[in-house]
Amino acid sequence: MKKRKFIKIIILGLLSSFATLQAFAQKIKKVIKSDKEWKKILTNHQYYILRKEGTEKPFTSPLNNEKRKGEYLCAGCKTPLFSSKKKYDSGTGWPSFFDHYPNVIATKLDFKLLIPRTEYHCVICEGHQGHVFEDGPQPTGKRYCNNGASLTFKPKV
Ligand SMILES: [Zn+2]
């Protein structure tokens, strides 16, 4: 009897955590598209970076020198990822930010180079944005080194 009760508790626990996960998944509403669909709405360059984790050449994105106030949206799903208030000139040739909007960025380790780096992507469409480093300015000390091609700038009106 005791064992049964224990199992029941475990099952209930699993069910409730599953329900929480489901609620979370519903709340963020992911954008999921096939490769074919992405190719239709993105340029070849954007597709290579967002969907194949490519990297643009430094100093090639006009967003590198963008200084206006506004928001930087994911070029794949138009979710606002960064505010111009958190942008700074890192001198690297890529648009750089020291922080992002909450709950829109997820990270994973990338082993493409000899030293593992932390890749980050948009939570909503899983489009690759860039890499995050620990040499950014305060208060976060982070440098979100973003491909300009993965972003769309929306000036504040
Ligand atoms: Zn996105």
Description of the molecule:
- Helices cover 27% and strands 25% of the residues.
- The chain is of the alpha+beta class and 157 residues long.
- It has one domain (3-155): Peptide methionine sulfoxide reductase (Metal Binding Protein, Guanine Nucleotide Exchange Factor, Chain A, Beta Complex).
- Bound molecules: zinc ion.
- Residues 74, 76-77, 79, 122, 124-125, 127 line the site of zinc ion.
**Ligand catalogue:** zinc ion
Any idea how many domains?
A: 1
Report how far the terminal alpha carbons are from each other.
67 Å
Number of separate helices:
3
CATH class: Mainly Beta
Order of helices and strands: HHHEEEEEEEEE
The name of the CATH topology is Metal Binding Protein, Guanine Nucleotide Exchange Factor, Chain A
Helix- and strand-based class?
A: alpha+beta
- What is the number of beta strands? 9
Mean pLDDT: 90
Primary descriptors:
157 residues; alpha+beta; Metal Binding Protein, Guanine Nucleotide Exchange Factor, Chain A; six-stranded antiparallel β-sheet; three-stranded antiparallel β-sheet; 27% helix; globular
Topology of this protein?
Elements: H1 2-28, H2 35-41, H3 44-52, E1 70-74, E2 80-83, E3 87-88, E4 96-97, E5 105-110, E6 117-122, E7 128-133, E8 143-146, E9 151-155
Antiparallel strand pairs: 1-2, 1-9, 3-4, 4-8, 5-6, 6-7, 7-8
Bound molecules: zinc ion.
Zinc ion binds next to loops.
